[in-house]
Amino acid sequence: MKLLLKIWRQKDGSSKGKLVDYPIDGIEGDMSFLEMLDVLNQELIEKGDEPVVFDHDCREGICGSCSLMINGEPHGPDRLITTCQLHMRRFNDGDTIVIEPFRATAFPIIRDLMVDRTAFDRIQQAGGYISVNTSGNTVDANAIPIEKAKADESFEAASCIGCGACVAACKNASAMLFTSAKVSQFALLPQGKVEATDRVQNMVRQMDLEGFGNCTNTGACEVECPKGISLENIARMNREYLMATAKG
Amino acid sequence: MSGLAKTSVARKVVMALSGLFLVLFLILHVTINLTSVISPDTFNTMSHFMGYNPVVQFLMQPILIAGVIVHFVMGIVLEIQNRKARAVRYVKFAGGASAPWVSRNMIITGLVVLAFLGLHFYDFWLHEMNYKFVQANPEDPTRYYAETVEKFAPIWRTVIYVISFVLLSLHLWHGFASSFQSMGINNKYSSGIRSFTRLYAIVVPLIFIFIALYHHLNPITH
Amino acid sequence: MGILDSKVPSGPLAEKWTKHKNDINLVNPANKRNIDVIIVGTGLAGASAAATMAELGYNVKTFCYQDSPRRAHSIAAQGGINAAKNYQGDGDSPYRLFYDTIKGGDYRSREANVYRLAEESVNIIDQCVAQGVPFAREYGGLLDNRSFGGVLVSRTFYAKGQTGQQLLLGAYAAMNRQINRGKIKSYTRHEMLDVVLVDGKARGIIARDLVSGEIERHSAHAVVIASGGYGNVFYLSTNAMGSNVTAAWRVHKRGAFFANPCFTQIHPTCIPVSGDHQSKLTLMSESLRNDGRIWVPAKAEDAQAIREGKLKPTKIAEEDRDYFLERRYPAFGNLVPRDVASRAAKERCDAGFGVNKTGEAVYLDFAAAIQRYGSEKALTSGIKNPDSETITKLGEEVIAAKYGNLFQMYEKIVDQNPYKTPMMIYPAVHYTMGGVWVDYNLQTTIPGLYCAGEANFSDHGANRLGASALMQGLADGYFVLPYTIGDYLSDDIRTGPISTDHEAFEQAETEIREHLQRLLNAKGKHPVDYYHKKLGKIMWNKCGMSRNAKELKEAIEEIAALRKDFYENVKIPGGLNEMNPELEKAGRVADFLELGELFAKDALQRNESCGGHFREEYQTPEGEALRDDKNFKYVSAWEYKGEPKDAVLHKEELVFENVELKTRSYK
């Protein structure tokens, strides 16, 4: 099939970017979206142009590297998949596809479609862990039984891949879904309860420092999340935060 | 204001609590107004109580005004912060694909309601202040009904009121349910809560619209 | 012993590790503060090593090419992690795990290392649970286990099909805690390009900042390579796009021996290649073989018709299907180990019975399982005389509950409904057992240079069992390396900070600049991927699932020629001092082009078939692998001498004192 790609090109964080048109032909339905971009890049290199830069790695929907706003939606029009799992059969011959980077002040553009998402790492560093030494002297794994429903819920929250689609989809560029997923994972486990107060306060403080927007409960993050992380996590974080504040 | 709510989560809670307070106030307001359709005397009595009871006047009213101010100032602060959080906008953004219009445009519905409040204050509150304190008129427990009905005589005011109530309805449609999420309530009761809040968001503004139209269509004949 | 001293402690197998830990030198906590360690790679091995060493008090610097440590490819591991916890009471023990691993590896791994791995496996689970890793649990609240291919006990812990993700996020969280304390400095979007040796000891690395393009020098008292496997030498593999051999290969070029490069695991259940544009292969969990039956048409003309799209697989009658695994291996059937299943599929496809338009696919059919589960479900739900539609519907529900996410993933990629028509699968490169040679302390042949996880060669012999890769990465990182490295570092407490102004850094940096400039200066005809794909084709066709001397010799020639062409004709846009993804790829492919040749050379010298290494000349009349313990019971460790063809082979004889060498049979 034949397509017209409108791709955001930007040399670096301090330059101005713009959409550039790239007509492309010979695209097959079996190609993934990123393979389609590979084809484009091979053509660009052979012509002596600079290839389009974008983040990608595992190409099976788990590493969270790939991003892209495709026609105004993070990871494209399909639900519960990442860009690398989107296939070109989803598009029609003659379509125009607008491809932009995930945009947020907290995700500065590095080049073209590649953005810096280390703000997420810093939020995790502020408290997204349980302070237990890896000495090999902890209690037996089965010493504390955990209700299956709680363990499953914790797993669901923990399945976040940190791709940033929630931020990209949110009209406020809020990182509440991401942050709350980590807060929830630990809040639901007995091992995580010990540090719950400090954790939620520190992570929320860091999230705000990074310049993410405020949550207005539109729910766009949940809809666009490739892993289906639930809004309940945000409510849980709010609750945890209120309780932490009440405790002082 | 920033001292009041240092973090994003706290600011949400402030929005939610002030919003819920205003939602509660609306019930009181709509109840009193509804009496104007049923019994002018009751309406006069209640209005007089609201206007001259010292607890209402010097405690409740300032709290209400503060609630309104907190809600809209915080709303505007949040909007400014949120816009800063995405300094460069998308060329193409399919916001409608993942969230309904009302939830994404609370600032629009909110500002319209705020503008309406300006008119509303001018119409009633300023009028009252002027009547009671500037002109220092004597108490007249029977004047309220006539004054109210008279306000709805011009078609333009009635139309503005009706439009504003529609936008209030949209604002409540998202805002009322959203306040529970902000306060950390999202559980098995949430779908019930949402149904209730949406019913509220439709019924309360509808009653206001009904009252406005009723008075416009049934002027007092002298 | 000579040059290859495995440093395995003396004493009975089960006591070696404890004894060793008691004997080695320690560094006192105050001195640890003065010692720096560099860790390259932040997957399970690297992240866990970084976390533990930082906890112990060392100053750690980590390097990864990804934008965050959390994205290392350990994240993609699906199935689970083995541990000899014996929670199921089915007779499991460290010894049994040790035995299964040695046997599964076809007796080509080091006994003492494997036993230590089995011993530490139990700690891993305790540790991960304490860190908040949400493993699957039973209704009673205790941890759940599943069983995996090739073993007789249930010892695999899992978190749905995302065990690797959860374990990596646990290690990443432990790292984050140390980053927050200032004990780890994490360099992301950085690629290690060389190791720096001062007076013969590893004292630092040269890395490139992938965003600015700047070449940087970093010094330390010891360097750990935990950069994963080299499956991408095949171009198409289940590895991530960025997975590469560069760190491991550069240390090899500086003197670290590279062991068993030809030991590669080819996983039988992957989604087949659909066309030339394909960039990567996707794994379908091994667990599918519990319920799926593997077959191809029994008649060549049926296979032909299917390939041409004239016939549907569901229209082929039962008697015209060849369930070749069940036919060849009646005892294990569809559950034979990975290497055996892969080879059998290739054999059928090579004989002309393959399906898919490429002819390189076999069916994995759930129809029988759907019927079986459907009838069972109807019975237990009290439905009397169910019609076939009801049975199918109920059966599909059971299958969906077990494998729903995999079926959905398959449908997304292939655009066929695997509930209605059989899945198509084909083997793909998945894991590399070979890697940098290390002794019992995980130290390479360069003093102060250590290697952990998939990047080293140590624990899996010639074939890795399912759910053992995660176990090895974490055991190395959390529980082995942090202690063994102390023995070496105890000599460094008075060394003080290492200066990056030393001439060795100067020289290494100059060499790297020249190397990258040479790539950029090439005349420029073909993009990097062109060469990578060509290399992949040679590797897959001549060094893949089955190998022979003639083709291996051809491969050596062809790869050398391709490498020459690459350096002359590769086309790389952009420059050195800026972000340049094509230059990154070129550097990696340049190293693959050398490794590939050594790989073939290694396969050529190993005149036997064992585990993932199958030499056509060495098979039984029935086509099974023929191991030669008399002549090849060794680790081949290669010393770099300039060109891959000049590499010198050193042999580490494997000593088996605790297990009896047997022929693996799954008949």
UniProtKB/TrEMBL annotation, chain A:
Keywords in alphabetical order: 2Fe-2S, 4Fe-4S, Iron, Iron-sulfur, Metal-binding, Oxidoreductase
PROSITE patterns: 2FE2S_FER_1, 4FE4S_FER_2
Transmembrane segments: none
Coiled-coil segments on the chain, per record: none
Cofactor: [2Fe-2S] cluster; [3Fe-4S] cluster; [4Fe-4S] cluster
Domain 4Fe-4S ferredoxin-type, first and last residues per copy: 151-181
Gene3D superfamilies, sorted: 3.10.20.30, Alpha-helical ferredoxin
Family: Belongs to the succinate dehydrogenase/fumarate reductase iron-sulfur protein family.
Name of the featured protein: Succinate dehydrogenase/fumarate reductase iron-sulfur subunit
Species of the source: Robiginitalea aurantiaca
From TrEMBL, chain B:
Domain of life: Bacteria
InterPro entries: Cytochrome_b-558 (IPR011138), SQR/QFR_C/D (IPR034804)
Coiled-coil region: none
Record key words, sorted: Membrane, Transmembrane, Transmembrane helix
Transmembrane segments: 12-38, 58-80, 101-122, 155-176, 197-217
NCBIfam families assigned to the protein according to its UniProt record, in alphabetical order: sdhC_b558_fam
Entry protein name: Succinate dehydrogenase cytochrome b subunit
Organism of derivation: Robiginitalea aurantiaca
From TrEMBL, chain C:
InterPro entries with a match to the protein in the record: FAD-dep_OxRdtase_2_FAD-bd, FAD/NAD-bd_sf, Fum_R/Succ_DH_flav-like_C_sf, Fum_Rdtase/Succ_DH_flav-like_C, SdhA/FrdA/AprA, Succ_DH/Fum_Rdt_flav_su, Succ_DH/fumarate_Rdtase_cat_sf
Matches recorded under Pfam families: FAD_binding_2, Succ_DH_flav_C
Keyword list, A-Z: Coiled coil, Flavoprotein, Oxidoreductase
Cofactor: FAD
Chain ranges of the FAD-dependent oxidoreductase 2 FAD-binding domain: 36-470
Domain of life: Bacteria
Keyword NAD assigned: no
Domain spans labelled Fumarate reductase/succinate dehydrogenase flavoprotein-like C-terminal: 532-666
Record-annotated membrane-spanning stretches: none
Alphabetical list of Gene3D superfamilies matching this protein: FAD/NAD(P)-binding domain, Fumarate reductase/succinate dehydrogenase flavoprotein-like, C-terminal domain, Succinate dehydrogenase/fumarate reductase flavoprotein, catalytic domain
Coiled-coil ranges (or none): 505-569
PANTHER family according to UniProt: SUCCINATE DEHYDROGENASE 2 FLAVOPROTEIN SUBUNIT, SUCCINATE DEHYDROGENASE FLAVOPROTEIN SUBUNIT
Name this polypeptide is given: Fumarate reductase/succinate dehydrogenase flavoprotein subunit
Record lineage: Bacteria, Pseudomonadati, Bacteroidota, Flavobacteriia, Flavobacteriales
